[in-house]
Amino acid sequence: MGLTEQLADYFGFEEHDTDLRTEVVAGLTTFLTMSYIVVVNPSILVAAIDVPSRTTAETIQMLAVVTLISAAVATLIMAFYANRPFGQAPGLGLNAFFAFTVVLGLGVPWQTALAAVVVEGILFIALTAAGAREYVIKLFPEPVKFAVGAGIGLFLAIIGLQAMHVVAIDSATFVQFNPIFASDPIAIISVIGLFVTFALYARGVRGSIIIGILLTTVASYLADFLGYSATNQEVIPESGINLLYEPASLTGSGTLTYSLAGYDITPLVGAFLTGLQNIDGLSFALIVFTFFFVDFFDTAGTLTGVSQIAGFLDKDGNLPDIDKPLMADAVGTTVGGILGTSTVTTYIESSTGVEEGGRTGMTALVVGLLFLASLALVPLAAAVPLHASHIALVVVAVLMLQNITDIDWSDITNAVPAGMTMLVMPFTFSIAYGIAAGIISYPLVKAATGDLDDVRMGHWALAGAFVFYFFVRTSGLLAGQL
């Protein structure tokens, strides 16, 4: 039996109606759309992680290596254990909370913040093994489950359009059409690349998303060579803060050149052990709770939304054997914290690979191997400009909106939680907040109409947990304990 046959047998290509070529293309697509994290994660964490024996540049390189290793380990576990086409890496939003809220804002040592990530991961492992995480996810109201995919689509769209310079920040309206669109080469090249990708996809061209990304990348390098340059700022997506950077060219200026010291990650590995010393029990528990809460529902929403595209959900909107990808996610978080990075989570960009036909762990295997390969090469994330890779997010966002047909909009008790889920996600830059809005509104509107037969105690418990979370997160209670 050849290698191709062995892979087909192990991952179940026939069962999932796929083949090796499709899975490899899907893996490449997912990697290209999420590989920006290799550059973005270090740029966020370096603000909080200070290693005395390393320069800032060396610390950035160390964090890039840790990002690559943790992403590879978590995604390979997803491939071989869960056999699902989901990529994993340190999560945006959670890394910003780690750096700017916990460490810089609250004055918590970065080693202690890493300890909170490790504890959160261990809790996830225990709860997943006991089936508790699967039970909670099954409690999601049906309209919320069916709205998650479309909500993530809207969320992806705004992230992608930001990176493409189609939308820009406005102090009065929050977002606006790029006022210098006609003179911004990033915006022009991105939009042309987007419509070329749509055209290829509409024609049924296999690998259309990858082709679109690569054509846009080539066009960007060509324009850069001819002397065109970026003229306005880009926003790092889902950071939760106005963290801006100005690329020096259309191809970006964040290329990392690894030094030998950059490969020595020993100051980061195991640093969480130092962080476990002399901690305040209540404040540490609140930090763990915040990491835990956001990661739990971000992961749940991502798995549900991407699985909806792939056709993995059953008639009740549940993902069969969800405990396996949840366990891969939990182990990834724990390994990431031990290595020295913030919470590892399942990426919504996995939807791009699924849209290319990825259906098995072979897709995740390709993603994991590409992360490992990037350790030896200049990171591919630096070679593919952010605006080029994020074309895929807009394409997938449009396709994900098809999921709203599964929702019974004629029933107001379904329309309210579904609509809140979809709207809050993009406007708060958080999958978890969107799910929270849907879950809190569901029992309330059901109770208001007297339709309590569909409401269980678990729905009220989840709604109460979210209310408590928002109180802790926004009342200043966390800061007051530190």
TrEMBL record:
Pfam families: Xan_ur_permease. GO terms for biological process: purine nucleobase transmembrane transport. Keywords: Cell membrane, Membrane, Transmembrane, Transmembrane helix, Transport. It is found in: Cell membrane. GO terms for cellular component: plasma membrane. The keyword Membrane applies. It is a multi-pass membrane protein. The chain crosses the membrane at residues 24-48, 60-82, 113-132, 144-168, 180-202, 209-230, 250-272, 284-306, 326-348, 360-378, 422-445, 457-479. Belongs to the nucleobase:cation symporter-2 (NCS2) (TC 2.A.40) family. Azg-like subfamily. PANTHER family: XANTHINE/URACIL PERMEASE C887.17-RELATED, XANTHINE_URACIL PERMEASE C887.17-RELATED. This is NCS2 family permease.
